[in-house]
Write the structure tokens for this entry.
Amino acid sequence: MAPSIRIGRATGSKAKGFTLVELMIVVSIIGILATIAAPSYQSSLIKARETVLRQDLFTLREVLDHHRADQGKYPSSLEGLVATGYLRALPKDPFTNSSSSWQEMSDSAEGGIFDVYSGSDRIGTNGIPYNKW
């Protein structure tokens, strides 16, 4: 008797892999999750930048006060804090991404800079513009 020849798939075995419909469903689910997560991610970035801004403003104001306590007067510029060794470098404003955009508030009676603000025109999550913090 001659052996039988089978053409096609062997009986009992299944093809491995995903169908096009399954792949489309997975891609759709990933797209929906990404759409939900994107606003949360943006909000987290803004809150992180606000935290950095608060810390930078605190540090700059504290260093201005230290300069006045040590030297008897406020510095004439923020760069003067770096030149005299009170700061290693001026921090970058996290919203303008520049270390030269800080707004300096000077005192006409004493001379020198006694306060500093952000150079950004944006409004914070608390409703107050960053240049008023």
Notes: The mean pLDDT is 88. The first strand starts at residue 103 and ends at 106. The beta strands are 103-106, 113-117. The longest helix spans residues 20-71.
